[in-house]
Amino acid sequence: MSDDKEHMDTNNKNKKGGTKRNFIMICFAYTCVTTSLNAVVNLQSSLNTDKDVGLNSVAIMHGASVLTCIFLTTSIGHIFGYKWSIIGGQFGILLYVASNMYPKQWLMYSTAIISGSFRACMSMAQNSYVAILANDESENDDAEIKTRKYFGIFFTAYQSAQIRGNLISYLVLRNTPKTTNTNFTQCGANYLTSEHQIQDDNHQLISQKTSFTTCTIGVQYVGLIMTIYGITATISSIVVTYTVKFKYSRRICFIIAALLSYTIFTVMLVWKPTVSQTYVLFILPFLSSISDGLTEPFVTGLT
Q1: Domain boundaries, the chain
Q2: Over the stretch 151-160, which tens digit does the pLDDT of each residue have?
Q3: Can you spell out the DSSP letters for the chain?
Q4: Which of 1, 187, 203, 301 could form a disulfide with 151 if both were Cys (CB 3.0 to 4.6 A apart)?
């Protein structure tokens, strides 16, 4: 009997060790592929401004993701399996990132559709993997709490991709010549949809399309601000992993997130951005990232 018990304990330890290794690999793979994607997406409305190619491509990508989630992810998951769904999603993301080297409408829009569709399948597969791994390790623990904890760790890794990708974009763009925009009435909630052609010291025309950050202080700061967003969102996701076991933790996190979101929306509608109040441009993403980091693990853990 003692030998059988020892054998069972060994099997349980090996099973838990394998579960954790698989979970770490999923987190690592998702972080690697989203590092470049996050950096590129965050800069689309500031860099690829010709005919709004960048902004439209992001909208198309998310639209394709929504439609794929509604109609195709279940079928694709059954046909190709989770592993190939993840590989396909990574391939689609790489295509979209690479298309930014030649940002033409036909290329950006087509790769956006591919990326959005494949990414939806990848997210479905990875979320399913995380839920399965959490349930495998739960055993005597509350399966729901373990699932939330695993998703908290997963989104900690995911949000950390914002840090690396956006920090790289900041370092690359930090020496970009600053524009001479002085008409800040065009920035913020009253930002005009038409392009504002502004001439810098080198007599080069620069289009500004972002209503807050780019319009006020320049595209070179987008990466830095989003890096701070990533740091705060990562910390918030870490907090979730330690609070899921407490009663009413989900409700409290959602209430805090809702209050922060409504505060941000109100400030963005009322506030008129100026260079002298640049710090507000850092505070708003900071608050938004807390909301994001607190809710994503819970929302995904409900599936």
Answers
A1: 1-140, 142-157+171-303
A2: 888 888 888 8
A3: -HHHHHHHHHHHHHHHHHHHHHHHHHHHHHHHHHHHHHHHHHHHHHH--GGGHHHHHHHHHHHHHHHHHHHTHHHHHHHHHHHHHHHHHHHHHHHHHHHTTS--HHHHHHHHHHHHHHHHHHHHHHHHHHHHHHHHHHTTS-HHHHHHHHHHHHHHHHHHHHHHHHHHHHHHHTTSPPP----GGGSGGG--SS-EEEE-TT--EEEE--TTHHHHT-GGGHHHHHHHHHHHHHHHHHHHHHHTTSTTHHHHHHHHHHHHHHHHHHHHHH----GGGHHHHHHHHHHHHHHHHHHHHHHHHT-
A4: 301
